[in-house]
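User: I'm preparing a small set of examples for a lab meeting where we compare how different chains pack in three dimensions. I only have the primary sequence for this one, and I'd like the structure in token form so I can line it up with the others. Please keep the answer compact; I'll paste it straight into my notes.
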Amino acid sequence: MAVPGKLRGVVAMDGPSGTGKSTVSRRLAAACGAAYLDTGAMYRAATLAVLRAGLDEQSPAADIVAVATAADVEPTTDPETSRIRLAGEDVAAEIRGVAVTQLVSAVSALPAVRAALVRRQRAIIAEELGGIGGIVVEGRDIGGVVTPDAALKVYLTASEEIRAARRGRQDAKAGWTADPAVTLADVRRRDRLDSTRATSPLHAAADALILDTDDLSVDAVLAELLRLVAERGLLT
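Assistant: Understood. Below is the structure token output for the 236-residue chain.
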């Protein structure tokens, strides 16, 4: 779905997992000729580095911070791909596995980890704004912390049950199987951890537009986002 013009500025996309955030963010960026940044994938890649170092949730926080902040994480900004590299290796599939999913909230809750990755994210955003001119950034603290001056902030939401069902379908497509009850419990666990952490908790920015995706298809969500981008005068 193309639009007449290219995105200029930042669109901040926040929300919990299972709201369709990644899919619509990539499609919005592609439609508007913009760059795309999945900040959640960066935290997942850093978490994978922690796991590869033989650490887990019971390990000393200082050790986790040392590994996570030193990890060579390189995300793509091309909305047509989902590649992310860790020490030069494409780990896009591995970071979606169960082990990373279970640990990522704990790793990303550490203030030093968040501070280090936010600095990297802001550097990437600045580079893309100075080049291609526009970027869609998705995560859990984009509008409130990473880019508080974003021209458009959207917070996607959906019920726990809908989000768990969507994640179950994604896992099945990737070749992973899980009991629906276990998936729902994990969605609730991550929501609790992400929304109660001391640093950059998951919440909608005060000036974000809330978009409930329970009954909306991906195409319908994208259409609304394109309308908002045009309405804000962000296309040139």
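A couple of notes for your slides: The chain has one domain: 9-227. The mean pLDDT is 91.

User: Perfect, thanks.
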